[in-house]
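[step 3/7] fold_predict: job queued, chain A
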Amino acid sequence: MAEVPTISITNPELESQDLNMTSPVTPSPPGSPTVFDVVKNMEALDRDDMYENDPTAADFPETPTPTPNHDHTADKSDSQVAPVSQEQEQQHQSPHPPEESTPTTESTTPTVTESDPQDQPSLNVREFYQNKAILLTGATGFVGKALLWKLLSLDVRKIFILLRTGQRRPGSAFQRIKEDILTNKAFVALRRSMGPTLFDRMIRDKVCAMEGDLAMPGLGLSEEDRKTLVKDTNIVLHCAATVDGNERLDMAVKVNVLGTLNLIELANECMTLTAFIHLSPLQMAPGSSAFEDRLLPIPSQESPHVILSTILSSSFEDLPAIFDDYKRYYPDTYLFSKSLVEHLIISEVERKRSNGGYQYPVAIMRSSPIGPSANEPLVGWADGVNGANGTLLLTGRGVRVIQPGGGNANADIVPVDFVVRMILGCAVSITPPSSSAFDTPIPDVDAFNEQRSSTPTPSTVSSPTNSTAPAIRDSGSSAEEATSVSHMSMESRASSKTSVRPLSIEGPMGAVFPYMYHITTANMRCLPWRIAYEPIRQYWTKATKINLPPAQSYFTSSAGGLNRARTVMNSIRSYMGNNGNVPPTASTSSDRTRKRSSQQRLSRQIDKATKLSWTMKSFYKPSSNNAVDINAAGLRRHLQSTELDPYCLVPEDADHSFWVNYFLNASYGIHYFIHLEPDLRLPVPLSGWSCALQSYDYVQGNDSVRLIDRPAQSAVFTADQISRRIGRMVAQVKDALETNAVSRTPQDDERWLGDMDDSLDDWCQDGAVFNSDKEIRMVLGKWRKKVGSNDDRVKIVVLNDKRVNQAINQITVNAGVQKQTAVNEAMKILVRMSERTQLQFVWFASYFLKNLFDDMFDNVRIQEESIRRIRAATLGKRVVYVPVTKSILDPLLVWYIAIRYHLPVPAFACDEALAQLGPISDIYRLAGAYYIKRDRQKRSPLNTAVMAAYTQVLLREHGALSIYMEKARSRTGKYQEPYDDGLIEMVVESTLQSNQTRSPAVSRVASLESNSNSSPPASPDTPSSIGSPTMSIDSSTGGNGFTRKSAHKDVFIVPINITYENMPELPYLLDELLDQHQPASVKQSNAPAPPMQNVMRPSEAKDKRTNALNGPDVQRKFGRVLMGIGPLVSVQDAAEELQRSSSGSVVDPAEESMLVKKITEEIQTNQRKALIVSPVSLVASIILYGRATGGVCFGKMKDMAEWLRAEVIMRDFQIDWQEGEDVDAVVLYAFRLLDETKNIIVEGKEITDDTNIRVNDHADNVMTLSYYANQATDVFLLDAFFAVVYLSFTEDKVIEDEFMDRFRFLAQMLEREFVLTWDIDQQFNNVLSMYEARKVIRRSRTDETGTTSHLILAANMESNPVRYEQLIFLASLLYPTIDSYWITSCSLSALDAVPMLPRSIVPLLAQWIATHLITGRRTIYREVLSTESSRTAADMFMTLGFLTEIQAKEKLSPDAQILLHELGIPTTEMLIQLSGQNSDGGQTEVSPVDPEGMMKALMAQIQMNRANSNMADLCQQIDTYRLGAMTQRETFQNKQVFQKCLKQIKGILQANTASFAKKRQVDLPENEEKLVQLVYALRTSSAPSVDRSSSTAQARALRRVSEAYNLRHY
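[step 4/7] structure written:
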């Protein structure tokens, strides 16, 4: 016969793959945590330099997995895991059903004859593999790659890899290693974690590629290579095979049978062989169990050798007839050939025993289908579409590969890293057999008896060969799943529902050789396919928007099975979209190229998976068979606590949650590693985290559905109508959220109200609302009543509140009105303020919010420990949730989390302005919002009293509130100062004081309510605690003193920090930040003229770019929401601590104010501790950092991201980035959320490590990235201050006191910007010690007393470039803010021309100056256009003593006040002016003789008396901290900038046109006229609303503002 090309060594799937180092997304995942540390310190950024400079460095780091006890030896005879006999096995069979046994009993996991692992000598895996040489076949396949990766982490001497080359694979064998192996993400990640130099040296020294072919005589090896293998090989790992069941019979036999025999022939020649491991599929015949001492019989009278010879010598025409004799028992050539080779291996062992030859250890590892990794080399790593991999891919595209009748069959998928550890552990454990005392496995003659005696049942799926073969289990095809113990371990372990049933074993088992091990999860509580299908469906539905049928519809007898034509058509539809059309996506040309390539790749993969799926068809049929894994269970226990412990990957007590998460990650692995979709992230949360959008009962394996997870049962509307209705409502809320309800029409409101009425009516008629579990309703507080609430009782309590009575009496006395009138006004305030929800509305709101968040976000995550802490702390207590204010959704998210996890569900306080947001306000109301006036100046004393009384009633009656401390949402992503609205003070009062007493009227109302059908509600405590309803109102009072702790329930405040990976309202917030919205208080009649033509605002430009790229109505999600919970704050504990530290009483107003301040600071501190860092923030900060260098290459960006991740963890913050998660996926995912097509410029069609990435340098684009970067700035804030000060020096040696002075001034100047509450001296010492340990600075003791007086700045571009660049990055986090303050100080040069300015005009002035400095390239930071930073800067300059303020009506004439009012400046406006010596107009000269001396003198002057410094000096001082300020300081360019800004302002005032006052025919003093004219010029230029013909200068200024907003770098 002619030689036929084979695929003996390689995975056939790889034949058509074109993997190279310049693939569209260069694979660079992070290293596994069990092999190499991933960027644990800063040096990791440049490992090449590190190792090249250190010739003594180790070859590579050791794995940080659990290490064995090195006191024990590695004697294999002491650590052998022997097979067990039948009698021994029967001793461990459970007499009871497995459901009744506990997970840890011997009935569920058979034991071996050996003693417990802790009593055995520990296996020293590393010592065993040290200096060993391994021959590995199949290294280009799935299992082979995983084995090679793991072997590289062991201290092996050499790894010989047999590779086939030829016409289809031109080039050397080592070249094929580079192309087919080292380009895989697993090895790219390993190379990144080790460093290129070390990794390349390891590959060069340890990996030896040899050209050969299993099917050729002598393996096709050269004589020299064969001699090398014979001399050096210690272990043979045989993983090569052709797994295509449709392969021709002779081809399959050549590779799988003849190739194995050729390998055994080589092994027989090896001089020092200690193990031969053969990988085989785990096959089972119908009605028969698979035992570890039996072989599946070959239905022939001929011997296996004769069968092999017959097949190899037959002609092509005779092969079908030959296979027909075996097809009934083996459905395809793959399974037949793998069974035949097992018989031949036994024959070879018997032959050697009969000849008296030496028998090296041999083991046959039979594995169930192999799936994606659990943890190694990366979480979810997969390769190829063989077996279960293809099943997961096809299932995700809507193809029915899993048979509908197989819902109860075990989803027996084994993670590939679990298999690898078993294989390598087996090589360590097995020993040569006794020369005479062993038996060989025998054929199981009863295996096929059942099908011989019965008529075969036709398969529901006909194979391409129309086979009627029995359901023999195909497990050799590779399959892949990803999950990690550290990421998926859950608190509760569900009992197993799928266990090993008692077996009836006939015939003695004895001591069997070759050793046989069954690697299966069937006895490790794996799920049935009916349950395993759900996480697969959930992942693919979310990731691809393909509507897959639920399990109850999928696993039905009427459902169609696998059909070749249907599969092909579905594969076409799957990548074209659900409707056959490509969905609209925002894409650039490079993005479209990548998506086209992705679609083509997907089509090829689906075609391969469809072809190979026929091999797996019998595996998914229902079966009652069991695989006995006695030997494998013993091996697993023997490997415990070693470097190859398989239970580190799949726990021995793996529960329902583990396997659900496993299949979620498995589907992700197929999608990311095989489909190569670039911007995906692991779907399973970090260990100990929960996804609030996942059904609680689904996670627990419960089929019941909670109210929050299902719609109301309607008697009027169908399920489809309800689904469409909720979809419309979700869309309206999203639209209102993104536009702040400004674009709604009456028709929108009418449609919304109609849908709302129908929905509420359905929920009111749903009986399940009233019959819901009492434990669930307990957390609803006063809302758990069936209808309404105790409004009358609340009104009586509020009106009898002491504070309300005092306010009413004050009105009566001072205003002379009747008391009843004041009481009626109090009632109106209360009615307008009160929340108005009830039980049915609460359940509707919870269901609606679940749908809304599921539509908007990928998931909402919270730490399970945080939930437990809240439950434990609030047991019998009251709770106040205080989130950091970032989004309108904050209170709704807190409310949803509370009701989802059975925490006390809060009513939440909102500003009255939020009542005007249309649908959002309606949802607020249904969720229990009450609207208040937060501005103290707009509240009357009566309003304040009613607000305090009602807040106290709600807190005590309902038991849970949600408030926020900031004035409004942050526009920059930074923390904000608390707003003095009195809410925290009211919470403290309600805890410590008794302002409300029980009156007879209250008692009468309570009595009436107690006689009604529904009892009054208690506080929403945890379900295990039911408080007395009478405790909600004080039954006794001790006067106006500090009430005893027993008389009041304590209040726990829960600090919350919510991280949005993508902020829904961000465009609107950025428009406000750039001051593009006309204030509502300014009437249109007083506004300037209509806008100029051809002037584009940033948001308008953004909208046009968006429409051009996206097209209309592009649907997108906003990433993840991460809810962090800080340490809880107890009000009573804080009060007691304050009392202990002071002699006063809490009743003292001063002491009470101190208590409120203390609690407020503690809340904000704990909110910061609760921050969960998103990688999106890190990537945004890196992109912005690249502005100084024109961009950052993709490879460097990944290095920096990994370094920042390590730094975040080192600072005890949490980050949403799992160990083992691919860094490429993390960064590209961040690109997608940062809106790559608009905000980021990717230079090139494909992204490689050399691709340059930079920000699209428009103001709106920069502000977007800056918002996300600022969310992570707080983590590195102290380091950033240090870095800025460090880089402000030109010398290598500085005085420590001077360093400290600069640090102190910078911290004081930016104190309000970052809401700092530091002890500056302590923080300085901390950061100095940290960077001294990192060898960035050194202390020099030079004086006689030995005190530290100098600092050596050791890091620079020459001595330590890595550290120096890290300092530059850290400083870049502050540079935009410093530039904003610098520009604000420059803009205040206007006070030299105009003695005073309205305070509100300073941000516009600074923005106008910023446009000139941007166009003049004096700053590269578009963030200086922010009006928020300049407003804070002006406030800080006033605090530092450079400015003073005065009322406008006290300084200006009435005419000037009228003109300013016309320009939008109210008469109550404060004016600012220079203070102290600044009043000289900044005329004091600054000597340029000694810049450094001047800096020191100025610093000392500022510290002693800041009022003696003029504004020019302040501008210069700030300039010293700026990027590149060292060269500017030498030429005094900063002073030139200050003077040029002054000149520009004077130019406006001296324009050859009539002033605004002259146009209004008003005569003003010169200073007032200049003031009015400057305000007029700024108003017109900032609002683009002046007629072009009115003023050429003003029109030119307007164009410059627009240009600055949309400026590009060329």
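[step 5/7] annotate
Residues 101 and 107 are 7 Å apart (CA to CA).
The mean pLDDT is 76.
exit 0
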